[in-house]
Design a protein that fits this description.
79 residues, mainly beta, 5-stranded antiparallel β-sheet, 56% strand
Length: 79
């Protein structure tokens, strides 16, 4: 069975780690989750987000298609 989440990086995140703003190589729908699985932020069609309000730590960025299906999952480090 094929994993539906793409393991190749289609969307680049920079800078990573970051303290304030992170940028994506293309506009995306994205959810930011903490490591307990709780969605802490959600954005539609963005290429930059402000993570300054998040506590330091490791997060997962879920990139979603128009139907809400995860197409990529990437680690984001907030310092």
């Amino acid at each position: 069975m094929k994993d539906p989440i793409n393991t190749k990086s289609l969307i680049n995140i920079y800078p990573n780690p970051a303290n304030n703003l992170i940028h994506f190589s293309t506009k995306s729908n994205v959810e930011i989750m903490n490591l307990t699985g709780r969605v802490v932020a959600s954005y539609i069609n963005v290429s930059t987000i402000d993570i300054s309000q998040l506590p330091e730590g490791i997060y997962l960025a879920n990139f979603l298609d128009d139907k809400g299906v995860i197409i990529q999952r990437s680690k984001v480090v907030k310092y």
